[in-house]
Amino acid sequence: MQIQLNGEMTSLEGDTTIHDLVTSLGLTQRRIAVEVNEEIVPRSQHDAISLTDGDRVEIVHAIGGG
């Protein structure tokens, strides 16, 4: 399956949830926001939503500063 991740085409294997994707990117301990097809997905739903071919996913994380 092919998705667009932060503007780049990315291949994923089989049934992949948002949680699976975030984990594979090493972002589980970060404060992030995930958007799929221009809809923000609450963290509580990351396990429940499977990505499909052609989805557009944006992941951003907060960077602290002073």
Count of separate DSSP helical elements: 1
Query: Given the helix and strand composition, which structural class is it?
Result: mainly beta
Quick one: overall form?
globular
The profile of the biggest β sheet is: 5 strands, mixed
Fraction of residues in β-strands: 25-35%
**Which oligomerization state do the chains in this entry correspond to?**
single chain
Mean pLDDT figure: 94
Q: What separation lies between the terminal Cα atoms? A: 41 Å
Task: Give the ordered list of helices and strands.
Answer: EEHEEE
Q: Compute the gyration radius: what is it?
A: 12 Å
Explain what this protein looks like in three dimensions.
The chain has a five-stranded mixed β-sheet, with no helix packed on it. The N and C termini lie far apart (41 Å). It has 66 residues and is mostly beta strands. The radius of gyration is 12 Å and the shape is globular. Strand 1 and strand 2 form a beta hairpin. It contains one helix and five strands; from the N terminus they run ββαβββ. It is 11% helix and 33% strand.
How do you describe this structure in short?
The protein is mainly β and 66 residues long. The protein has a five-stranded mixed beta sheet, with no helix packed on it.
